[in-house]
Amino acid sequence: MAGFDKVVGSYAEAMEGLEDGMTVIAGGFGLCGIPENLIAEIKNKGTRDLTIVSNNCGVDGFGLGILLEDKQVKKMISSYVGENAMFEQQLLNGELEVELTPQGTLAEKMRAAGAGIPAFYTATGVGTPVAEGKDTREFNGREYLLEESIQGDFAIVKGWKADRYGNVMYRHTAQNFNPMAATAGKITVVEVEELVDVGELEPSQIHTPGIYVNRLIVGSFEKRIEKRTVSDS
Fold it and tell me: What is the pLDDT of residues 139-193, one digit of tens each?
């Protein structure tokens, strides 16, 4: 069964084939469940003019934010960008193109791509700047706008456990965008905390089946907390 083994031995091998100008879909929400080591490898490779599709762009100095330091990102498609001063500055300076997308629409753009659906109608964004230039249609007396799905040249994903065949589990809220992102890449790369024996994961526990995964690597993670809140007592 060697041909089904998705495990690679290095981050360089995991991101082999990434080139300037490609589109990369990244899982995670804030700093929760982000593929931090795969992002670091993109920075190390120096790949430029990238379109990054993710809920947000990390923070200054961590997550996707590190790709802004050397201006490797040409365009950001995301739903929230409020935690990154460098992002704001590059946007205001005209150095970064930004396409703000409602969060649920962004998730569906990924899911639809994975399901082979090129576009879909949604009521979200009707009558707002989000709808500018998009086709609209009325269903049952309500107006909807047409949104195109997004497929990435690469999808980078953070999992909790996986077997060598690429069957992946996510831990709690780290599911966020990761399951949708995993389906939407021409090449999907998953980094996980733990590699388990084939058969150890119950089928009902698997969130992303191995058929979606091209490469798998085991890493260690910093897991920063984006905003720490504590009580006085």
Answer: 999 999 999 999 999 999 999 999 999 999 999 999 999 999 999 999 999 999 9
Q: How far apart are the first and last CA of the chain?
A: 56
Residue 82 token pair? 């409020």
CB–CB of 182/168 below 8 Å? Answer: yes
Cα–Cα distance for residue pair 54/5, rounded to 1 Å: 28
Q: What angle do CA 131, 137, 142 make, to 5 degrees?
A: 90
Q: Is the pTM of this model over 0.90?
A: yes
230 CB-contact burial (10 Å; exposed 0-12 / middle 13-18 / buried 19+): exposed
Question: Same domain, yes or no, for 162 and 211?
Answer: yes
Strand partners of residue 191: 158, 217
CATH of the domain at 47: 3.40.1080.10
